[in-house]
Amino acid sequence: MIEVISDSRCIRCDICVRVCPANVFAKDDQGLPIIARQDDCQTCFLCEIYCPTDALFVAEAADGPIGITEAEVEDRGLFGVYARGLGWSKGRANGAQFDTTHYLRVAQV
Ligand code: SF4
Ligand code: SF4
Question: Phi/psi class of residue 68: alpha, beta or left (left: φ > 0; alpha: ψ in -120 to 50)?
Answer without folding.
Answer: beta
